[in-house]
TrEMBL record:
Cofactor(s) it depends on: [4Fe-4S] cluster
Keyword Hydrolase found: no
Name recorded for this polypeptide: Radical SAM protein
Signal peptide (residue range): none
Taxonomic superkingdom: Archaea
Statement: the UniProt record of this protein carries the keyword Transmembrane helix: no
Keywords assigned by UniProt, alphabetized: 4Fe-4S, Iron, Iron-sulfur, Metal-binding, S-adenosyl-L-methionine
Organism phylogeny: Archaea, Nitrososphaerota, Marine Group I
Entry GO MF terms: 4 iron, 4 sulfur cluster binding; metal ion binding
PANTHER family: PYRUVATE FORMATE-LYASE 1-ACTIVATING ENZYME (PTHR30352:SF5), PYRUVATE FORMATE-LYASE-ACTIVATING ENZYME (PTHR30352)
Amino acid sequence: MTTILGKQAELYEKLPDDKVKCTACARYCEIGKGQIGLCGIRGNENGKLQLFAYGKVISGHVDPIEKKPLIHYYPGSRVYSIATTG
C-alpha cells in the first residue's frame, strides 16, 4: 500500500502500543507511532513502517562499470546509478 508518505515497508516487526521495530539495518530502531527512525527515511504511521523515500530518486548518473563493485561484470560497459535520501 502506498500513502502520501510513501510505501509500506516489509522489513519490520510489530510491537505493542503501535510501535514497530525496523529490521532494515543493524540499528533495529524501535519507532513509536508518529516517529521517524535514525535513518530519517523510515517512520511509523499508525503502527506500520513507511518508507518516505520510496520512488523519490534525487540523483541519477551513468558510470563506467569499473567504478562499481561489478568490475568483472561486462568490462568496458556502463551502469546507471541512482540514489535516494537516507
